[in-house]
Amino acid sequence: MQVPEWCEYLKLRNVTKTFPGQDVPAVSNLSFDLDYGEILAFLGPSGCGKTTTLRLIAGFEHHHEGQICLAGRTVSSPDYSIPPEKRNVGIVFQDYALFPHLNVWENVRFSFNSKARKHNDTIKFMLSLVGLYDFRNRYPHELSGGQQQRLALARALAPRPKVLLLDEPFSNLDADLREQMRVEVKNILRATETTTIFVTHDQEEAFAFADKVGVLQNGKLEQFDTPEKIYHTPLTRFIADFVGEADFLPGTIVQAGVVETDLGLFPSYSKVPEGAEVEVMIRPDDVKILPGTEHTNGEILQRTFRGSINSYMVKLDGGTVLHSDQPSTLLFDTGTRVRVQLEVEHVVVFPRTNQESDRSHSYTPDVDMSLAGTKQVI
Ligand code: ATP
């Protein structure tokens, strides 16, 4: 398939939606661009506006401010809205919404609103792609959870939608199947070059599945970026806390771009003025624990065995508790005195007093991501 010339394939500009009788918008001033074939995950706590955003793009809800463009044309603005059935948007609901009285083949054929034989090749192609062609005469109740999900996907993809929307697509599956389906579904979306948006509460899922991640809070898009940037250089403390594990170590900016903490001096991603009191974001994979009796600066509080890693809680002599991911073979008893070091090249800092995710109070990281993958002991 030829990639269309326009970029910004899906474009939202300043979209705001307030439900009748509500004081606060469910979605507020939402703007982002998604390229053709990209996969976007919306991540955020319950009630942050993820489903409402999907419904606005699908055309099930109307917004009173802003504009949504899809594949080069406006699909909705305050005074104009193309109805859902004319937007060519595919949707897979959380419960799959399969038709129980139709078999696998008929479920997919239903997406064409016609029984014309001209669709047979497409149906066969889609069912083969999702590995269900040999199951075409079965009914949904005769399929496993993963097969039902693949059928829902085939049905949504068969009419070649301009964008596919997935609402918590893996939430009904158990952990093993969930991981397997993530890989399978991603491969299918890549093979069909399907521009996709899905919503999830699960950060691991968002990272594993998506090219871009949008983190929403209270209807606002706090950050829209690659999974790597969201993880390594979160724009707000809320994101640092919500996405992945993070501890916060008190620090002081002792000179421009340098923060002093109990664990030493670190270059920081910030333009915070000298003397400012800050919190330094620490990921568990940044914290190294060394055994020894000299120069110790902390004590093991707890070890949690997680199979491939040991997750340690260690209390610094200054009182801060940090988490540290270590190999499953590295064992320390509770109470062991240890030397704690940070293995980071730069650190991300937030104002000490700011416990909330207000972007206007956070410092904008000035990031060179070419450095993000490398680490060194400081
Ligand atoms: P969850 O993860 O729990 O599904 P969400 O992020 O998808 O949550 P939305 O369903 O988009 O959140 O809801 C966003 C906000 O809009 C919530 O405060 C919700 O109560 C409100 N809301 C959603 N639908 C309606 C409605 N039809 N009428 C009034 N308020 C609504």
- The named CATH superfamily of the largest domain: P-loop containing nucleotide triphosphate hydrolases
Task: Tell me which CATH architecture of the largest domain applies here.
Answer: 3-Layer(aba) Sandwich
**Might you state the CATH topology name of the largest domain?**
Rossmann fold
CATH class of the largest domain: Alpha Beta
Biggest pleated sheet? 6 strands, mixed
What's the helix-strand series? EEEHEEEEHHHEHEHEEHHEEEEEEEEEE
Question: On the 0-100 scale, what is the average pLDDT?
Answer: 86
Total beta-strand segments: 21
Name the beta content range: 25-35%
Shape estimate: globular
Structural topology:
Layout: E1 10-17, E2 27-34, E3 39-43, H1 50-58, E4 65-70, E5 73-77, E6 80-81, E7 89-92, H2 104-110, H3 120-129, H4 145-157, E8 163-167, H5 175-191, E9 196-200, H6 203-209, E10 212-217, E11 220-225, H7 227-232, H8 237-242, E12 247-255, E13 258-261, E14 264-267, E15 277-282, E16 287-290, E17 298-305, E18 309-316, E19 321-327, E20 337-342, E21 349-351
Parallel strand pairs: 3-9, 3-10, 7-8, 8-9
Antiparallel strand pairs: 1-2, 1-4, 4-5, 5-6, 10-11, 12-13, 12-15, 13-14, 15-21, 16-20, 17-18, 17-20, 18-19
Helix pairs in contact: 2-4, 3-4
The structure holds adenosine-5'-triphosphate.
Adenosine-5'-triphosphate is lined by residues 19, 22, 26, 44, 46-52.
